Amino acid sequence: ALPGVKFIKTSIGQRIVFRRSFSEGLAVFELDPNGKGTMELNALAAILYPKIVIKLINKN
């Protein structure tokens, strides 16, 4: 372990939707809004930017 570095438990898999989104110029959530790739990215965003994600959830 590195001193002062905290590891997160969220992981992002190697998914076809990530390659497709890059090659088609679309976001993962545009290609597959309910897919595993979208869920993984949302989970990471919730950890990295909790205040922003909470605001977005409460807005809807």
Structure write-up:
It is a single chain. It contains four helices and no strands. It is mostly helical. The protein has one domain (16-59). The radius of gyration is 14 Å and the shape is flat. The mean pLDDT is 87.
Keywords:
60 residues; mainly alpha; flat
- Number of helical regions: 4
Number of separate strands: 0
Tell me what portion of residues adopts beta-strand conformation. under 5%
Could you say which structural class the secondary elements and strand pairing correspond to?
mainly alpha
Q: What overall form do the CA principal axes indicate?
A: flat
SSE string, helices as H and strands as E: HHHH
Helix content: 55-70%
As residue ranges, the low-confidence spans are none
- The average pLDDT is 87
- Please give the alpha-carbon distance between the first and last residues: 40 Å
- The radius of gyration computed from the alpha-carbon positions, rounded to a whole number of angstroms, is 14 Å
The oligomeric state of the chains shown is single chain
The biggest beta sheet reads: none
Taken together, the total number of domains comes to 1
